[in-house]
Amino acid sequence: MEKTIFIQEVGAYSERQYQRQDGTMEYFKSRGVTMKHGGDIFYGEMTGELASKNRDTQYDPNKLYVVKGFWKHRTWQDKNGEERHENMYYITDIQAL
């Protein structure tokens, strides 16, 4: 999905270590972004090398950007055993217009 957006807020870059299924250790890198498209406000994350490459990038809230990415869905159970759903937008590219 590609959208022309304004960036409302950008979170801090973060890294956290985790153990892969093969037992090796790796770092999960991310940076969250709150975006606005028309009347819609949504959240997405840059992950991996894109997040690392843009760890210090400053985004102008008055400037238009083109964001590219994809949606993922997951189903999970809350503490009461109720089924819940979550949609997450993963950013694959972001460029100023």
Strand-helix topology:
Blueprint: E1 2-10, E2 14-19, E3 25-37, E4 40-47, H1 48-53, E5 64-77, E6 83-96
Parallel strand pairs: 4-6
Antiparallel strand pairs: 1-3, 1-5, 2-3, 3-4, 5-6
Task: From the structure above, extract its key features.
five-stranded mixed β-barrel; globular; 97 residues
How would you describe what is shown here?
With 97 residues, the chain is mostly beta strands. The protein is 6% helix and 66% strand. It has one helix spanning 48-53; strands spanning 2-10, 14-19, 25-37, 40-47, 64-77, 83-96. The protein has a five-stranded mixed beta barrel. β3 (25-37) and β4 form a beta hairpin. The longest helix is centred in the middle third of the chain and has 6 residues, at 48-53. The radius of gyration is 15 Å and the shape is globular. The two termini are 17 Å apart. The mean pLDDT is 95.
Order of helices and strands: EEEEHEE
Mean pLDDT across all amino acids: 95
Determine the number of helices (DSSP H or I, runs of at least 4 residues): 1
**Count of DSSP strands:** 6
What's the gist of this structure?
The protein has one helix at 48-53; strands spanning 2-10, 14-19, 25-37, 40-47, 64-77, 83-96. The chain is mainly beta. It has a five-stranded mixed barrel.
